[in-house]
Design a protein that fits this description.
The complex is a heterodimer of chains A (about 210) and B (about 375). Chain A is α+β, with helices and mostly antiparallel strands and about 210 residues long. Chain A has one domain: Thiolase/Chalcone synthase (Peroxisomal Thiolase, Chain A, domain 1, 3-Layer(aba) Sandwich). Chain A has seven helices and eight strands; from the N terminus they run E-E-E-H-H-E-H-H-H-E-H-E-E-E-H. In chain A, a hairpin with a 4-residue loop joins strand 6 (about 165-175) and strand 7. In chain A, helix 1 (about 35-45) packs parallel to helix 2 and helix 2 packs parallel to helix 5 (about 125-130). The longest helix of chain A has 13 residues, at about 55-70. The model of chain A has no long low-confidence stretch (mean pLDDT about 95). Chain B has helices spanning about 15-25, 50-60, 70-85, 125-135, 150-160, 180-185, 250-260, 280-290, 305, 315-330, and strands at about 1-10, 30-35, 45, 95-100, 140-145, 170-175, 210, 210-220, 225-235, 270-275, 300, 330, 345-350, 355, 360-365, 370-379. The longest helix of chain B has 15 residues, at about 70-85. The chains are: A alpha+beta (about 210), B alpha/beta (about 375). The interface between A and B is large, with 53 and 60 residues.
Chain lengths: ~210, ~375
């Protein structure tokens, strides 16, 4: 039976970026996630000015997708067959706090549309879709902790009902204390060098690979 | 197969689906001028639920726990929908999907921060509060995908029933009119100074609203009035994060995919419940997507002129009304609409009439370039 398999995956956490479990970039001296992402973005040189206007969590998800898709596996798929399903725990809490600070007082009232739009977690999905022209299924889910079972079931069912043939799945989270991104690319191509079953067990294993 | 077996709407127009339906049939709107400087420094139009009415309705359900305004709305909504069924919310075979954009965002205000524990503002926590109230043993699946969340949540629930993960799914959603959201839309200059006018030539922006809504799906048909889920799909414009595609691309793709999944030709669609926010760009974009599928003659309505835009719950509110339209074989008019103001000729309903309704299409679009479409049919 035709099935999805994971072809590549990316972790960003603790000021390190790993591709398929291998260290690709690190900047241990980073003063913040923001600082780390800026440095990492320059390192990978994607040359995409829109990156700088994104909020920090969109930057995190976007950078992870840039690293993940360096070999352009999506070129084999139609835009409408390529989906994105991302999850996290905090939604856009830090950007929410930034917007809240701008509307707290009537005397110091300066709401900005460019901040407000990023108070929706799926904007990150929009940014990645715009970058690569992906026009398939979208969903952003919130769970207390990474829920590999749900992500696997949800994406597999979209695949089985012919709504996608390739997909980015994973977890991109940022709190005031910490951040982490784990995203993967899964598609229905056979005979790839790295083809990991798209099951909850394997997704959970990959998620925990980098501590 | 998944069947729609019960539903509810908590809105300024009523606390039951039937009350809301009757209010819409009479052309009532829940949108009124709001003078509350805690929400916004100037007066603005919005559809807000009277807090006293909400508290009165909640008294019967009150426990020792303290709940936020949104939680009260959600609990009332789920309770009313569940009461119409024999479904056991404490069963592991019953799942909950919660659809919301901003959840308890009002707790972020500096004067509210100590009223509840800090993590109450988090969306998964809101899901947990709901599952605990009803004694549901499963983790609530919280969907936050801008204004398509409601339609997408129904799609997710139907999918989980179809693969046998659950026998019954409680799909609930809610969003409130808060200082956060009003200020945000004001900064975008997307709010109309008056009650919004979907698809109208004089439309000049949206009106916000607040509501909770619940739709219960089940693997088993329960009665002759049941309506079944035939398909659902989402698609991204891949064009802009805060404006719709000029060609209606994402919406067009979502409709195309859902027609394929449902095995339905455009000619079989009896009625379209559009997103119809009444912003110049959204309604124009939807008219293009409808036109590209040659659905020009199909009666279309938008309910935003009555409920305002209820964000993450809009898709649920509008689906609950669509289900009632099908049961009553009634096409509800588009409140606020008088003369077509989109470039493509589409059939916007200006007068409530009777029509046999068997197969209907629901559309939704939102920030992030997201679009969704769903087809439902009488069982």
């Amino acid at each position: 039976m035709e099935q999805l398999t994971i072809k590549t995956y990316c972790h960003i956490k603790n000021n390190r970026i790993c591709i398929n479990g291998e260290l690709a970039f690190e900047y241990p001296e980073a003063s913040s996630m923001h600082d780390f992402l800026k440095k990492a973005f320059k390192h990978f040189k994607p040359g995409y000015a829109k990156f700088y206007k994104m909020d920090d969590i969109s930057k995190l998800g976007f950078l992870a997708s840039e690293v993940l898709l360096q070999d352009k596996p999506y070129l084999a798929y139609q835009p409408e067959d390529t989906g994105i399903v991302i999850s996290n725990s905090q939604s856009t809490l830090l950007t929410d706090a930034e917007f809240q600070a701008s509307i707290q007082d009537d005397t110091n009232f300066y709401p900005s549309p460019s901040v407000f739009v990023y108070t929706l977690p799926n904007i990150m999905i929009g940014e990645i879709s715009i970058r690569h022209g992906f026009r398939g299924e979208n969903a952003f889910y919130i769970f207390e902790n990474f829920n590999a079972n749900f992500i696997a079931d949800y994406i597999n069912q979209l695949f089985l009902s012919h709504k996608l043939k390739a997909c980015i799945g994973g977890w991109v989270d940022q709190s005031s204390e910490n951040y982490e991104a784990f995203i993967y690319w899964a598609d229905n191509k056979k005979d790839a060098p790295l083809a990991i079953e798209h099951t909850a067990k394997e997704i959970e294993r990959l998620y925990n690979l980098i501590r | 197969m998944a069947f729609f077996v019960a539903d509810n709407i908590i809105s300024p127009l009523g606390f039951k689906t039937a009350d809301n339906f009757h209010a819409l049939a009479k052309g009532y709107t829940g949108i009124d001028m709001i003078n509350d400087t805690k929400i916004y420094p100037e007066a603005f139009p919005a559809a807000m639920i009277n807090s006293n009415n909400l508290d009165d309705a909640f008294i019967e359900l009150a426990s020792k726990e303290k709940y936020t305004r949104l939680e009260k709305m959600l609990i009332l909504s789920i309770k009313d929908a569940l009461d119409k069924t024999k479904i056991d919310p404490t069963s592991a075979r019953t799942g909950i999907v919660l659809s919301t954009t901003k959840g308890n965002i009002d707790l972020m205000a500096s004067d509210r921060q100590n009223s509840f524990e800090k993590n109450r503002v988090l969306l998964w926590k809101l899901g947990e509060v709901i599952s605990h109230y009803f004694g549901n043993p499963n983790q609530t699946m919280v969907l936050s995908n801008a204004c398509i969340s409601g339609v997408l949540a129904i799609q997710a629930a139907a999918m989980l029933i179809q693969v046998g993960k659950f026998d019954h799914m409680i799909v609930t959603g809610g969003d409130i009119v808060s200082r956060f959201v009003v200020s945000g839309f004001m900064s975008f200059l997307s709010l109309s100074p008056k009650a919004c006018k979907p698809f109208d030539k004089d439309r000049d922006g949206l009106s916000l609203g607040e509501a909770a809504s619940t739709i219960i799906l089940s693997k088993d048909i329960t009665g002759k009035d049941d309506i079944k889920f035939l398909g659902g799909a989402s698609a991204n414009d891949a064009n802009h994060i805060s404006g719709p595609s000029r060609t209606g691309e994402g919406s067009y793709i979502a409709i195309k995919k859902v027609l394929e999944e449902a095995g339905i030709s455009p000619g079989q669609i009896d009625h379209i419940s559009a997103h119809g926010t009444a912003t110049p760009y959204n309604d124009e974009m939807e008219s293009i997507a409808i036109d590209r599928h040659h659905l020009n003659e199909v009666p279309v309505n938008s309910l935003k002129g009555s409920f305002g835009h209820t964000l993450g719950t809009a898709g649920l509110v509008e689906t609950a009304i669509l289900l009632e339209e099908m049961r009553q074989n009634t096409l509800l008019k588009t409140t606020g609409f008088s003369e077509l103001g989109v470039s493509r000729k589409i059939n916007v309903i200006s007068k409530t009439t009777n029509k046999e309704l068997n197969t209907c299409l629901k559309m939704a679009s939102g920030f992030g370039g997201s679009n969704a479409a769903m087809i439902i049919q009488k069982a």
